Structure formats: C-alpha cells, structure tokens
C-alpha cells in the first residue's frame, strides 16, 4: 500500500483510527465494539472505529432532530450554497478519497476516482435543484379559491449503504436530502467504515465553518444491529437502504410496521441482449467491462449475456478471447483490470456459484479460481469466469456478487430474448445491442424490458447522476439521484385558500345552517 501513497491519503483526509466512528458533526465518539477494517488489496489493517451503542444512537438522534429544526428554516438556495462549499472540498480531496475507496473496497483507482466524481456531480445537481424544488398550482373548482402544492422538508433521513459504493450512494442521498432541508443519519457498510469516517469529516468540517447545526450530518457505525436501531425508530420518516434483496425485505417490513417510508436499492440480475444486428466490438467491450469491472461487484454488473443463436459462437469466442487479456491484481496499479473481491465470504459465494452452475448442467468455458502467491496474499483475488447456462437454473436466478458471467442462447426474435431477460425476480439494469430500430424500440416499449434502467448499445453497468436510478421487482422499486427523485426526501402539502366571504364546499355539497 505504501508505494501507492495510502498513508499520505489517510493523512490528507485527517483519518486517525480508534474512537472515530459515531459522529454528530465534528465530534467523533462511540462506545461500542471495535470494528477493524482490513484492505482486500493486501490484507493490511487500515484502521479501527468504535461502533454505535443504543446510548450513542440516542445522542445522534437528539442532535439530528434538534439540528433539523434550524436547518429547515434556512432558505433552500442557501442550503444549496453549503452543499456547493462541501463540493469544493470534494474536488480538493478527490485523489486521496478516491485512493482510500480503492484501498478499502478493492475497486480500481480509476473507479475510486470515478466514484468521487459521482459525488461531485450529484452535489452540482443538488445546488441547481436547491432553486427548483417546485410544486404545481391547480385551478380550484370553487370561486374565489386558490389551490397549490408545496414541498416541505421531511425530517431526519436514515441512509443505510452497501460496501461496493462506499461513498457515492451516501452522496446521492445526502446531497439531495440536504438541499431539501433534511438532516441525515448515515450507516455505511461495516466492511468500509474508514471511507465513511473520511466523508463525515469533510461534511462536518464544512458544515461547522458555515454555521450549520452539527446534527445535519451524522454517522453511525456497525452492522445490521445498528441498522435496526434506525429502521425501528419512528423519528426517522424515511429509510433509504442500499444492499442485498435479503436485507431489503427485512428493512421494508420493519419500516412498514411503523408506516414509515422506504427507498430501496437492492440486488440486480442484469442482462445484455445480443441480437443478430449487434455490433460485436461494442458488445464485447460492454459485456466484459460490465461483467468484470469492480470484480463484478456492482449492482449493475452484467450477469447474463442473452445471445441470438446466429451470433452465439462469434460472441462467445470474442468474449473468451477478451477474458484472456485481463490482468488481475492490485487495483491501485493502473495496469490491472480486475481487483479483489471484498472479503473471503465473497470468495466463498463466488466459488459456490461456479460449483452450482456445473451441478445444474452448465458448462464452464472460462475457468475461475482463487489466485495465490505474491500480490494475492489477501486471498480475495479471483479469476473472472464464464459459464454456459440456462436461465431456469437456480444459481442463474440469483445474484452472485462477483465476476461470474452466464451465456444464454435464444432463438426467434427479440420477444423471445425479452422473455429470458425479464424471467428473473430482479429488475435493475438491462441493455440491448442492436442496430435494428425496430428491435431497439420494442425493447424500450411497454412490452419490453421490465427494468428501471434500459439501455441501447451501451452495457448494463454504471449510470449517470442525471437520471433517476433504481429498479423494479426485487430490486425494491426505489429511485434516487437525478430526475425528480428529490421528491421522496420531502413531504407534499396541498393548500387551498379561500379569499371570499363565503364558504362553498367542494363537490357542490350544501350544508346550510
Ligand atoms: P448487505 O445487504 O449485506 O448490506 C447492506 C447494508 O445493509 C449494510 O450497511 C448492512 O449493515 C445493512 N443491513 C444488513 N441487514 C440489515 C438489517 N436487517 N437492518 C438494517 N440494516 C441492515 O449488502 P452488501 O453486501 O453490502 O452489498 C451488496 C448488495 O448491494 C448487492 O446485492 C448489490 O446488488 C446491492 N446494491 C444495490 C444497489 C442499487 O442501487 N440497487 C447499489 C449498490 C449495491
């Protein structure tokens, strides 16, 4: 790690170690168990944080609810100005933060920088949004009445995030929630606690310098038990949770018990349809980056390639040839394409998937395996694998969070391909490779892809912040980031004002006294 400047990055970000974890602003505390963060890159201990206890959590909630009372009164464009200043700091610290993301999570340095760039982009978006939190006006059916709607801040927003985008998902939520006037309590993944601390330090410093109450950005640390403190607490009207479908089902029911709101961003099982009219070169780049980028640990990673029988051998050969070029190793070294999986549990799941696909009748055409020896001491580096499979296999129906790609064959037309694509329980990202206008439009039509994200001639992986991000079915139905996703962080109020001396009732109802 040293040759890649990790120590300096931690220093630039002001990271010490122990006692940092829970925070209601610049003040870091926490009296629970110690969480140690080991890098999947080289297995080294990066740092330790203290987890949040029930008592710590109370302190956080008091600070957040109190802070909200002040923050909500600040005009939205002025809140936007604070987010702009926060963004200046992100720009200044892009390199050390990107490096830490790469080192703690294991994605390539380029992707680490890309993740910080996403934070910068969403902050820019949020600053503009701070002057555009529009409602509508309506015509009242009653004379001398005016009707309109307005959006008010919601309160304390709880954010639970996954390890694979340890910083961007937080900002997708917070940047919008902050300009909307909310306070945010964030529980990052217990697998990436140091990046959470780094982000909280930046936000807390900027907020303190600008007289923002400390509870507007809070951090809690720990595993699902700390998450449950959030999901069961009715002082948090909205829980935005990103992670596995298994987690989403638990979170959804806990929050529903108290009739709170959820924004769920859960697992995907994303496919690219390769039609007879596909451009092979583009298909290969899209499919290979989609399947092996971030070692297959993106919610939008390509899991299934659905290839027309007339193209099958050509595409298969090209993809297999491309896999031979892949360099696996330290993600901070820009010569490598594929870094490690997050931990040994992830390695176990990857190995399990390869065993299962064979048991169910699939055929491995690019061998997987765990790498050993120099540079691979963490035990988390695996070889991206490809298997020929059938969509009905149980293992194909489930998301394996690693670099395993399934090739599926279809015959007939795009409707047959769509049946396979939509024939899974998840509905996040989808793509079609075609130069045929009819196929492309059919794919995007009401009879087409059932996913939240549907692309033509680009892969499934990654997204721009300008669009609403999320998926259907077991992906959870939530939307965050661009478009009008901000509305979930606010409460809508319909107002009717009577400026006459009469009191006519709606629907012409008579009620004479
Ligand atoms: P995970 O479900 O194990 O954990 C995610 C977060 O949920 C963690 O912070 C964890 O502590 C918390 N959590 C777990 N159980 C909880 C409970 N009962 N109550 C409250 N909080 C709880 O997921 P992971 O392994 O960190 O991330 C990988 C998963 O996330 C994949 O399935 C991936 O597809 C998904 N993901 C989805 C999106 C999206 O936008 N749709 C984005 C990133 C990741």
TrEMBL record:
Highest classification ranks of the organism: Bacteria, Pseudomonadati, Bacteroidota, Flavobacteriia, Flavobacteriales
Boundaries of every Aldehyde dehydrogenase domain copy: 34-494
The protein's assembly and partners: Homotetramer.
Family indicated by similarity: Belongs to the aldehyde dehydrogenase family.
Protein name: aldehyde dehydrogenase (NAD(+))
Any one GO molecular function term: aldehyde dehydrogenase (NAD+) activity
Organism: Gillisia limnaea (strain DSM 15749 / LMG 21470 / R-8282)
Active site positions, chain numbering: 265
Recorded superkingdom: Bacteria
């Amino acid at each position: 790690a040293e040759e890649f400047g990790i120590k300096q990055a931690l220093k630039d970000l002001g990271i010490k170690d122990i006692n940092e974890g829970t925070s209601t602003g610049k003040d870091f505390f926490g009296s629970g168990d110690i969480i140690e963060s080991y890098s999947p890159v080289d297995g080294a201990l990066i740092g330790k944080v203290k987890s949040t206890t029930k008592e710590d959590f109370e302190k956080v909630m008091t600070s957040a609810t109190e802070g909200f009372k002040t923050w909500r009164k600040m005009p939205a464009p002025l809140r936007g100005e604070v987010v702009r200043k926060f963004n200046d700091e992100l720009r200044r610290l892009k390199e050390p933060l990107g490096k830490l993301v790469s080192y703690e999570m294991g994605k390539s340095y380029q992707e680490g920088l890309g993740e910080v760039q996403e934070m910068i982009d969403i902050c820019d978006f949020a600053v503009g949004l701070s002057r555009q939190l529009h409602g509508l006006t309506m015509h009242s059916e009653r004379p001398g009445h005016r009707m309109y709607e307005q959006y008010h801040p919601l309160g304390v927003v709880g954010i639970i995030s996954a390890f694979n985008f340890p910083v961007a998902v937080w900002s997708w939520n917070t940047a919008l929630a902050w300009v909307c006037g909310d306070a945010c309590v964030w529980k990052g993944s217990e697998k990436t606690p140091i990046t959470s601390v780094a982000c909280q330090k930046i936000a807390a410093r900027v907020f303190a310098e600008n007289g923002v109450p400390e509870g507007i950005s809070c951090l809690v640390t720990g595993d699902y038990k700390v998450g449950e403190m959030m999901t069961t607490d009715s002082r948090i009207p909205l829980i935005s949770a990103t992670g596995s479908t298994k987690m989403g089902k638990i979170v959804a029911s806990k929050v529903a018990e108290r009739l709170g709101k959820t924004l769920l961003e859960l697992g995907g099982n994303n496919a690219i349809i390769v039609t007879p009219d596909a451009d092979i070169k583009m298909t290969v780049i899209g499919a290979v980056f989609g399947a092996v980028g971030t070692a297959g640990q993106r919610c939008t990673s390509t899991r299934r390639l659905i290839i027309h029988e007339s193209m099958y051998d050509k595409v298969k050969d090209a993809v297999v040839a491309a896999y031979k070029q892949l360099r696996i190793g330290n993600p901070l070294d820009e010569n490598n394409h594929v870094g490690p999986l997050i931990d040994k549990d992830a390695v176990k799941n990857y190995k399990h998937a390869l065993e299962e696909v064979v048991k169910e009748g699939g055929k491995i055409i690019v061998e997987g395996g765990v790498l050993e020896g120099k540079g691979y001491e963490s035990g988390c580096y695996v070889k991206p694998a490809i298997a020929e499979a059938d969509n009905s296999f149980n293992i194909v129906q489930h998301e394996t969070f690693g670099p395993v790609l399934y090739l599926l064959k279809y015959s007939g037309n795009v409707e047959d391909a769509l049946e396979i694509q939509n024939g899974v329980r998840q509905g996040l990202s989808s793509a079609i490779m075609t130069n045929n206008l009819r196929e492309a439009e059919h794919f995007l039509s009401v009879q087409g892809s059932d996913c939240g994200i549907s692309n033509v001639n680009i892969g499934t992986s990654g997204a721009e912040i300008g669009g609403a991000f999320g998926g259907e079915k077991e992906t959870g139905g939530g939307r965050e980031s661009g478009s009008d996703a901000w509305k979930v962080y606010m409460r809508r109020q319909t107002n009717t004002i009577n400026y006459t001396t009469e009191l006519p009732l709606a629907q012409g109802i008579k009620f004479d006294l």
